[in-house]
Amino acid sequence: MAQIMTWLRLERMSLLQSFIFLCSLTLIGVLSVITVEFQGAESIRQHYAADSTVNGWILPSLVALVLLTVAVGIVLMASLFYRWKLRKPLDILMKASEKISSNDLGFRISYESKDEMGELCRVFEIMRAQLEMNYTTLWRSVEDRKQLNAIFAHDLRTPLSVLKGNFEFLTTFLPQNKITQEKLLDIIQTMNVHIVRLENYTEAMSSIQKLEDIPVRSSMMETEQLMALLNESARQIIGQHGKTFNTSITADSNKIAVDSHLVLQVFENITANAARFASNHVNMKYCIDKGYLSITVTEDGPGFSEVGLRKAMLPFYRGEVSLANEHHGLGLYICKILCEKHEGNLHIDNVPGGGGQVTASFLTGLINR
After folding, report:
1. Tell me, what's the pLDDT at 298?
2. Pairing label, strands 255-258, 346-350
3. pTM above 0.85, yes or no
4. β-pairing, 244-251 with 281-289?
5. Long-range contacts of range 97-105, CB-CB < 8 Å, 24 or more positions apart?
6. End-to-end CA distance of the chain
7. Which of 164, 189, 317, 360 is most deeply packed, by most CB within 10 A?
8. DSSP per-residue string spanning 41-77
9. Residues 294-346 pLDDT 10s
């Protein structure tokens, strides 16, 4: 039967076309059976023509048999229509609904049919994929927030411990006048330094919270125009550090749709990092391919340490260089957030022969959101 239905191309028909087609087949079949029944009834009537009682029951029996044939035809047609056009997609959608209601999104909905039920399954699969992406994004956001809070709490311990220790020292010895003025001023200065650190940490946390609310506003622009903006920023940033740079570009389109302000913010951050750690030269490569803009910045400095490769994109990581008063170690973390908001990512690595490399990618043609 399945081969017959496939041969008849029933799977390619719409629901209405399939219904009309099955109705036509059923009508032909029912009429054929009724014709045979009429011929049989006529044969019986002629055979028993001498028996008057036969004419009394043969007509009601024939009517009943015709009605039964029509009913069987309708039931058969409905069963075939349900079996070949409705049962499988409904079963697929029912199981998918059960999995979604139990927060299980790790499956795919596949129903290869050209009719409305096939289209419904395809739309349902799009919805499932979007829910999975949203759920994954939400889960990653929660995990990143947990990690950020843990790191923030860890970094707060040192200044809080210093403040607590100095407070206890002052409350113990200050009433007894056992602290010289010099020592007192020194303690106050130390406490002030750590109070400023706490203020800076609080401000940094606030800026990260605001980053997650930044909307992505893409606009179409000439590729050369965007590259000119990036090169001008690179010239100013790298020039301030007395380093040199060169750029190269590979593009499959002369127009691009990105949030230029967001791209510039990420670019300026990774370029500033490269300029700080480069020995003499910074290399930048722009690539537009398969719907993505990728910017690779490479410096000829010492590169990332093994610990740095694991932790450089974590918030408040400053590496082995002590720049606590100038930098909070948020640069690459912020770049990572912004890249992900633009449906891209951030990748760090070391190049053969020495030097660090940071690649930021952005989805082009992103719908404003």
Report:
1. 94
2. unpaired
3. no
4. parallel
5. 100/128, 100/131, 103/135, 105/131, 105/132, 105/135
6. 50
7. 360
8. HHHHHHHTTT-HHHHHHHHHHHHHHHHHHHHHHHHHH
9. 999 999 988 888 887 777 777 666 665 444 444 556 678 888 888 888 889 99
**Across 71-88, average pLDDT:** 88
* Identity of the residue numbered 251: A
Q: DSSP per residue over 288-346, as a string?
A: EETTEEEEEEEESS----HHHHHHTTSTT--TTS--TTT--S-HHHHHHHHHHHTT--E
Q: Cα–Cα distance between 122 and 325 in angstroms, integer?
A: 55
In angstroms, the CA 13 to CA 15 distance is 7
Closest-CA residue to 26 (of 62, 64, 79): 79
Classify residue 368 by burial, with Cβ atoms within 10 Å: 0-12, 13-18, 19+. Answer: exposed
Tokens 């002629």 -> residue: 46
Residue type, position 143, single letter: E
- Per-residue model confidence as pLDDT tens digits over 98-150: 888 888 888 888 888 878 888 889 998 999 888 888 887 777 777 766 666 66
Cβ count near 46 (within 10 Å): 9
Look at residue 118 and give its three-state secondary structure.
helix
Distance CA 287, CA 296 (A): 8
**Comparing C-alpha atoms, which of 35, 36, 10 is closest to residue 24?**
10
Helical ranges in the chain per DSSP H:
2-7, 15-47, 52-81, 87-101, 116-173, 181-211, 223-240, 260-277, 306-311, 331-341
